[in-house]
Structure formats: C-alpha cells, structure tokens
Amino acid sequence: MVVLAAGFGSRLGMPFPKPLTPLRDGRSIMARQLDNVRTVLGADVPVIAVVGFKLDLIMEAHPDLLYAYNERYDQTNTAKSLLRALRLTAPGGVLWMNGDVVFDPAILSAVAQHMAAGESFVCVNTAAVAEEEIKYTVDADGMVLALSKTVTGGLGEAIGINFIGAGDKDLLIQHLDACADTDYFERALETAIAAGLRVRPVDISRFYAVEVDFEADLKRANEVTRER
C-alpha cells in the first residue's frame, strides 16, 4: 500500500505535514488511515509513505513504515510522488491513497473483492460533485472515461483511494513518468485510460470519506467520525 504524504498542505495552514493533523479521537489523519488498513487488510500489509515536506516528523511518528523520498516535493505534484512509490513496490497490485483522507474502514472491506480480482479502480462518491474536486465520467461499459477537476457533467467525485492491478501497473508507471511535474496522478490515469487501461469507479457513497483540504473539511471529518 502507498500513502502520498509529501506535500505542504498549505490550504489547511498547519506548520507540519497535513497527514499529521490531529483528529478529535486523538489520532492523526495518517494514524487513523494506517489503523484502518491494518484492521481490515491485516497487520502485515507493507506500507510505503512518500514524504517530502518536514519528512522527519512523519518518519518519527511512524518509524515502522517504508519510505520513498520525493526531494522535489516543492516543485512536483502527486503524479511524481506516486511514480516514486510504484517503482519500489513488489510485483502485484497496489492500493494507494492521499495522505489527507479520513475514511470509513468499511470502504476497504467493500473494495476487497476488486483488489482480489486484480481490477484497477478508483473509489467515488456520487452524492456530491463539488467544482474544485476530482470528477469523473464513464464510457458505455460503465468504466472511467475522464477523471480531472475540469470534467464537465461529472457523475461524482474521486475520494483519493485507488487501486492499480498487477497487469496494469507498468502502463500506469509509463504514464506517470510522462506526466508534467505539476500533474496530479489522475492525469496519468486519464492518459492511460486513453491508451487502453480499464478503471472501474467503485461507488462508496454509503460510507464516509472526507479529503481534508480546508478547516471546514477538518471540522466535517471530526463530525462524521464522532461516534465511530
């Protein structure tokens, strides 16, 4: 599994990496993510965290992880961070997530069948389609056709939890490598889809998932997890 945790997180305004943002239950966003993964997928799941901004703080908080260093974290976006990590992973499919997603662990149970089948997917929320979020459309077979912030007529939002199957990983790596430094990893998924990659949108709208970009998101994340 890969956690993307290299960026500044400047919109939230914290003086430390955003994945270390504390939640109401006393855990950080990243600690809650890792607890979810280990509870559902097993304690021995290998985790690679891609770090950059104040990397020592994340490494001190989670010394048991494997790490990939994006030394150009201040000049690149998530496409290049994911590229670093995928090149280090063992053969097989890879689950990855943004380091700022507070999510219901039941999501991982819901997507387990797709991972077991080696099916590439992105988790999506069809309950809302905000203008600034990553949106998607589908083709005639119901597979992802377009995936970006500029999509028109989006059917929902990508929540930042994704999986690339073993048979698709090399293709995604090629397209991540071809991305511009400023591209999000979704750009590589889009161009790989145009080259034949099949990606299923998995609707997880019945579960909670909050990508924490602003203070209002953090408040909402604490609200939805209050009794969980």
Helix/strand layout:
Elements: E1 2-5, H1 29-41, E2 48-51, H2 55-61, E3 66-69, H3 78-86, E4 94-98, E5 101-103, H4 106-116, E6 121-125, E7 135-138, E8 144-148, E9 156-164, H5 169-178, H6 185-194, E10 200-203, E11 209-211, H7 215-224
Helix pairs in contact: 1-4, 3-5, 3-6, 5-6
Our count of helices gives 7
State the end-to-end distance.
24 Å
Q: Can you give the helix content as a percent range? A: 25-40%
The count of DSSP E runs of length 2 or more, i.e. the number of strands, is: 11
Order of helices and strands: EHEHEHEEHEEEEHHEEH
Taking pLDDT < 50 over at least 5 consecutive residues as the criterion, the unreliable ranges are none
Roughly how many Å is the radius of gyration? 16 Å
- Beta-strand portion reads 15-25%
Overall pLDDT score:
94
Structural class: alpha/beta
> Outline, from the CA principal axes?
globular
Question: Could you explain the architecture of this structure?
Answer:
This protein is 31% helix and 22% strand. It is of the alpha/beta class and 228 residues long. Strands 1, 2, 3, 4, 6, 7, 8, 9 and 10 form a 9-stranded mixed beta sheet that branches. A hairpin with a 5-residue loop joins strand 7 and strand 8 (144-148). The longest helix is centred in the N-terminal third of the chain and has 13 residues, at 29-41. The mean pLDDT is 94.
